[in-house]
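Continued from yesterday's entry.
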Amino acid sequence: MVMFDSLNRHLLPPYGADWTHAPNFRRLAERTVTYDTCYAGSMPCMPARREFHTGRHNFLHRGWGPLEPFDDSMPEILKRLGVYTHLVSDHQHYWEDGGATYHGRYNSREFFRGQEGDAWKGQVADPDIPDSPRATRGDLWRQDWVNRQYLDTEAEQPQTLTFDAGLDFGTLLFDLAADPHQEKPVSDTGVELRMARLLVERLRADDAPADQYARLGLPYTPEEVTEDHLLVEVQRERAEAGRQPASRSDEFTEGVLNLRTPLADLLAEPAAADAIRRTVPGLLTVRGGFTLLQIAAFTGYPARPQLAALADELARLFPASDHHPSHDGEPSR
């Protein structure tokens, strides 16, 4: 069994992607069963693996975590029945606190090191890390740059392709039979109501805790689900915004302070904070190292016209020809 995170089936020859050069997938398909209507339950890594092991939807009652003591694991059942199971992986989360207990269900396992922030190579001195607007720069960020020094060729990479994260920003409904690429959202109150009631039935069948119902905004019994609980129409504007390509920095005017400057640094400058208050109200409560471009990509707000207006205002206030110091005395980028 081969597991790939973030690999869309429409990019594979067995599912009609004749333009993709993937001879190994072609050979694999000739020797295996190809499923046409098999859908993921939980998308994140460890919840999805729990579903593979147990056949039970993880997202209905818990988040990211290990196998539970009461779980029946498919590889472990095979092992008990005399079928030898061996795991090979570059997925370090199997070996982390909170994600562990999966790999131990196999007869044996092999781990290829170095992906992401895997605690692999030791280095006391800080690595040479280039400037970046990345919001989070914790231990994983540092360790990743340590690891990269030892992964300088494609042959040494534990993962050679990186996929852009999908945009969230609302609830969408698709007819997968008529629209397998999910390009034309459906607005059908009757269908959405039926799906919401089926979800509540499944939550009840899997003994989902009360906070799952609260998170989804659904009542405890299917009969209580009404049109007031539906989201497609309510979130249509947000969903449409989420389907638009994320804004890029090269689309906007840039001064010394710009849309790539961390929001916390912008808010430390009174003139920039005033421009944000006037142009994109509501962002003054946001903290952390996120930039306005990142916030817009994650949430759909500010919209592109607001970003353009704010970029122009920042360029006027802090023109690139000036050497305007930031609040800590260093030039802002």
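--- second protein ---
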Amino acid sequence: MEVDVVVVGGGAMGSAAAWQLARRGRSVVLLEQFEQGHHIGASHGATRNFNMAYAEADYLDLVTEAKDLWGELEGETGTQLLDLVGLVNHGNVRRLREVRSSHAARGIESHFIPAAEAAERWRGMNFRSDVLVVPGSGRVRAADALLALRQAAEAHGARFDYSTPVRDIRVDGDRAVVVIDSGEITARRVVVTAGAWTGKLLGNRVTLPELVVTQEQPAHFTPLDDSLAWPSFNHNPDPDDPRDAYWYSPVYGMLTPGEGVKAGWHGVGPVTDPDARSFTPEPVQLEALVRYVREWLPGVDAESAVPISCTYTSTANEDFVLDRFGPVVVGAGFSGHGFKFTPAIGRVLADLSDGGGAPARFTARR
């Protein structure tokens, strides 16, 4: 078989790349090693934060584009994907002032409110310092987004093959050969969005920043009052306050309708092999998360934690990797804050496949 592009990895980024490429008229086959809707990687689950609270220009460019593209995907599929319930950011006010300054320069709506006002508005949460509110943020319906991306890609002619592991990728001149159990597929480009399996699949074929795979364990907590309003939230520890010394990292969270309020540490789980995960929560980190929830989220039952197991694949500075090496395009290192950018990442990967570039911040050889 011969096609324009093979996409390896059917999570959020691979599905978005397939959509963007197919809508440009490219012939696309997406290969995913697991079944549709599996819970083994990083793209499963019902919700993710849609968070525009960045200060860096490259990220603000991407998230602004992503918001527009989520809207286009909603229009193509008739599926609601964004719930703009607002986002609150608190702790480390110095960093939040940088974010607010960048927003003001770009005309992105955000504003500070005092902690007491925030606590009155969102009674399920506690606040210690000024809160940066971003009304145009909220949450992405992640599971629905995966289905919508596939629907839109297939409507433009893409083919999605699940339970189809890739055994090898060979470069043959300006083309690539993808080896699967049933044979070989030759393509002008191969887009690798394999998440935690990126390093295993590519080996030494390309030179990437180190990709560290960790097993993370956010949890859902049962709300005590269903009438409470829940924005999405990010909470950074105050580096000058000893009361935050037990924190492992910043905390993120959002309401997941039907499952509870999700909260989790960010990127501090144990390093793992994605093919040999325990799926078992690390008890000390979980105990610290329950303590955080007890102190900061009075609107939920802190003892009701239902842990979730997922993988992060991260670079040292948490920047993404978006680059091309001959006929091989790589998208990696998204974990922890990538999902919100999904459709814009798909556009960048499609550009790379078509011979274009990516922002210098995200190239492997920066």
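The mean pLDDT is 96. The CA atoms of residues 92 and 240 lie 9 Å apart. Will compare against the first tomorrow.
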